[in-house]
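**Archive record**
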Amino acid sequence: MAKYFDVHPENPQRRTISSVADIIRSGALVAYPTDSCYALGCRLGNREGIDRIRSIRNLDDRHHFTLVCQTFAQLGQFVHVDNDVFRTIKAATPGSYTFILPATKEVPRQLLHPKKKTVGVRIPDHVVAQALLAELGEPLVSSTLLLPDEEEPLTQGWEIKERLDHVVDAVLDSGDCGTEPTTVIDFSGGELEIVRRGAGDTSRFE
C-alpha cells in the first residue's frame, strides 16, 4: 500500500517533506504535485523506479523522461545549453515548460532518447514541488501521471492513492492540480520546435 502524505499547498510541513524525501532516497516511486499536473517521480539512477514508470504509463524507449530541477544551476549540470538558449529558458523558468536538450554525461543512459541522446528538463513553479526538490538536493526523474488510454491526467491525491495504491510507494497530496501538462519546447535540433502546447504560454517562443 502507498503511504499518503497530506501537505499544506502554501506552507508545506517540513517534517512531512523530509519524510517523503527520505523514502525517495530509499528507492521509492512517488506521485507528487507540480504546477501543471501530478507527476510520477523517483531518484536519479533508480533503474527500477524508471522501469515502474514505464510500466504504469505503458511507455516505449523513445519517451522523453524529465529531470525536474529546483534551480537553473542544477539544471545546467544535466544538459548542454548555449548562450542564446540559456537566455530563452531563463526567462521562462520557473514555469510550466519542459525543455528538450542534449544531455550531459551526468544523465544515465536509461533516461536518454536512444537516437538523439536528449532529455527533458524543467523547473516547476510550485511551492510543494520546490520544497521537495530543496529537501532532496537533486532532480526527480519524472513523467506526467497520465494513465494509458485516458485523455487527462489524474488530479486528486485521494484518487491517485485509490487507483495506484499497489504500484506507487507514496502519494504527496497538496490539493487539486491542473489537468494540462507542460508545454514542451525542443532545442536539440538547432532550431526551436514547439512539440506540445500545454500549460505554459507559447507566445514567447513564436
The domain at 3-196 is CATH 3.90.870.10 (DHBP synthase). The beta strands are 3-6, 30-32, 39-43, 66-68, 97-102, 118-122, 140-144, 170-173, 183-186, 193-196. The CA atoms of residues 106 and 195 lie 25 Å apart.
